[in-house]
Amino acid sequence: MTTFRDIILWRDVKVTAVVFVSGFVFLVCMTQFSLLSVVTAVAMIALIPMLVIRLLFTARSAFMKTEFQHPLNSYLSKDINVSKDRADLIGERAAGYIVDSTVSVRRLFLVEDLADSIKLLVVLYILSYLAQWFSGITLTFIGFIGLFTVPKAYDMYREEINSAMSTIKVAVDDLLDKINAAVPLAKPKPVEDTKKAKAGDEDKDKSA
């Protein structure tokens, strides 16, 4: 069975080519027509041939006076039910993803870690700058083409890219360390230090 990873890494060239060309044509149509027009047109293109096939087989059965057999019965009879265990697993993963995302958003926007929040600010600034130069459909084109090129390029040149990214990460971490040193954050005192401080205050009260 072909997975999403196999598709974007071009491991099955025929399937990937079909998905890529179909998606690209769909995006081109989106630049000329509204989303509703494109969706309804695609639905009609898929439905009309099925109707023609059904009518032809129905007419042949009536003409030959034979029992009608649906030409696509093998597809109609396929079981597409999701097992309870599979559904529970999907729901558990989705719930975990939502919780983790919510926690991450809260941590970033409430500036729990200064370095991470600064990274988010830089990313948001870059996106706002790109939004001034490119429309949403253009960014979608770039993202779609990147989905079918960047993972493949990374898979082919994994060692070189990892080496370059490690160098960049070290430089960014050094910069963030300097920022953290220049803007120290108020960190909560350890529990032991808090207990010692309270004990010292009690001793002072007793001495008084």
Automatic annotation (TrEMBL):
Its main location: endoplasmic reticulum. Residues 4-199 form the Reticulon domain. Keywords: Endoplasmic reticulum, Membrane, Transmembrane, Transmembrane helix. One of its GO terms (cellular component) is endoplasmic reticulum membrane. Coiled coil: none annotated. It holds the Pfam family Reticulon. InterPro entries: Reticulon, RTN1-4. PANTHER family: RETICULON-LIKE PROTEIN. This is Reticulon-like protein. It comes from Nematostella vectensis (Starlet sea anemone). The lineage of its organism: Eukaryota, Metazoa, Cnidaria, Anthozoa, Hexacorallia.
